[in-house]
Amino acid sequence: MTKELLPAVEIEPAGKPNGSIVWLHGLGADGHDFEPIVPALGLDGIRFVFPHAPQRPVTINGGMVMRAWYDIKSLDIERNTDVEELDQSRSQLEAWLAHERELGIPSDRIVAAGFSQGGAIALYTGLALEERIGGILALSCYHPRLEAIPAAEGGLPIFMAHGTHDPIVPIGLAEATLARLRERGFTPEWHTYPMPHSLSPPEIDDIGRWLRQRFA
């Protein structure tokens, strides 16, 4: 059995699920944040899980307590993250992924997804798993420890996307992650959109297409 799971919004398909997406929200949001886009993705038979991050103080926001996957200590965010909290959130995502397997969903039909901080945890966790999952969906984010990215094995599908006008997570951080992934043998699908730190309708269309390919 898995460890205690974080609370989450769970959306069940009609009938028995034949795939699952565990999707992590960004800093200060909660599991309801991406719930509205589910109908736009055009997926049938897929179970969605949107966990709520724990409440914790965030240094760059004046120590304000909010839902966060890890503390960010300064604006130099790729070098000022709390590694202990990264590993705690990784363990919490791993617990949800294990839960989905316990429901009878094969690992190769489970996708780890996330936006911003949530995308960082999806990358950090999904790349380190011993058992390969169906893919990683990493939106407006970066890998928080580039030196920890392992060598590619087995062609793990990765979708990365970022806004060219993002003032919160500079696109350069995502590009550095993309370059490191390619160095390590991964072949991410990479998209940019003329948008800030958000999602856009063309991006949602691309996400839906990529997810449908994963679950075909």
3D structure, described in words:
This protein is an alpha/beta fold and 216 residues long. Helix content is 26%, strand content 21%. The chain has 4 helices and 9 strands; from the N terminus they run E-E-E-E-E-H-E-H-E-E-H-E-H.
What spatial form do the alpha-carbon principal axes imply?
A: globular
Strand content: 15-25%
Oligomer: single chain
Mean pLDDT comes to: 94
By DSSP (H or I, 4+ residues per run), the number of helices equals 4
Radius of gyration: 16 Å
What distance lies between the first and last C-alpha atoms, to the nearest angstrom? Answer: 29 Å
Indicate the percent of residues in helices. Answer: 25-40%
Given helix and strand content, the structural type is alpha/beta
> Could you give the order of the helices and strands?
EEEEEHEHEEHEH
The biggest sheet amounts to: 7 strands, mixed
Question: What would the keywords be for this entry?
Answer:
single chain, 216 residues, alpha/beta, 7-stranded mixed β-sheet, two-stranded antiparallel ribbon, 4 helices, 26% helix, 21% strand, globular
Chain-wise SSE layout:
Elements: E1 8-11, E2 19-24, E3 46-51, E4 55-58, E5 64-67, H1 83-102, E6 110-115, H2 117-126, E7 135-139, E8 158-163, H3 171-183, E9 189-193, H4 201-214
Describe this structure in a few short sentences.
The chain has 216 residues and is of the alpha/beta class. 26% of the residues lie in helices and 21% in strands.
